[in-house]
């Protein structure tokens, strides 16, 4: 049962990203990001790991360690605060921004829970590709 607390913090931001793309209310996104922080805090008590076979001889593994727990709580808290702060400044395409914002959070939490090098690499690449639209959000020459 406690291994569910490794998957839920990764899946909740993905579900919230789809809600953000469909123009969810600010209040709903704040509640989902706060729930994310609570799930990450509950995941700190998880000692299990999950392995999902993907290719012959290779597995995606999610596990927790002390450093990963610290960073997962830090990421969830900072994304919650940055998300609340960002509502005042995003006037153009906030749905697109929050969609990629939440997907990036999911990838960063996947980095915290990576149990092997393959999992770490896949989440690192996902984080890189999903954060790219955040940098180019204003679509100006300087960005």
Which features does this protein show?
143 residues, mainly alpha, two-stranded antiparallel ribbon, 5 helices, 2 strands
Question: Any overview of this molecule?
Answer:
This protein is mainly alpha-helical. It contains five helices and two strands; from the N terminus they run H-H-E-E-H-H-H. The protein has helices at residues 4-21, 26-43, 66-86, 94-112, 117-135; strands spanning 49-55, 58-63. It is globular, with a radius of gyration of 15 Å.
Structure summary:
The chain is mainly alpha-helical and 143 residues long. 66% of the residues lie in helices and 9% in strands. A hairpin with a 2-residue loop joins strand 1 (49-55) and strand 2.
Percent helix among the residues?
A: 55-70%
Indicate the proportion of strand residues. 5-15%
Principal-axis shape equals: globular
Biggest sheet descriptor: 2 strands, antiparallel
Question: Main sheet: which strands, in order across?
Answer: 1-2
Radius of gyration: 15 Å
Can you count the beta strands? 2
Q: Which parts are unreliable, with pLDDT below 50 for 5 consecutive residues or more?
A: none
Structural category is mainly alpha
Distance, first to last CA = 44 Å
Mean pLDDT: 87
- Please tally the helical runs, counting DSSP H or I stretches of 4 or more residues: 5
Q: Could you state the order of secondary-structure elements as H and E?
A: HHEEHHH
């Amino acid at each position: 049962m406690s291994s569910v607390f490794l998957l839920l913090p990764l899946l909740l931001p993905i579900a919230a990203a789809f809600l953000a793309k469909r123009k969810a209310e600010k209040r709903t996104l704040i509640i989902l990001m706060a729930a994310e922080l609570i799930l990450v805090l509950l995941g700190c008590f998880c000692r299990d790991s999950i392995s999902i076979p993907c290719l012959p001889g290779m597995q995606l593994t999610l596990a927790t360690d002390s450093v990963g727990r610290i960073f997962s709580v830090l990421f969830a808290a900072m994304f919650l605060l940055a998300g609340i702060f960002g509502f005042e400044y995003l006037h153009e395409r906030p749905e697109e921004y929050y969609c990629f914002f939440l997907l990036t959070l999911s990838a960063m939490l996947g980095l915290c829970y990576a149990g092997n090098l393959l999992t770490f690499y896949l989440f690192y690449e996902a984080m890189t590709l999903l954060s790219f639209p955040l940098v180019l959000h204003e679509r100006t020459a300087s960005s």
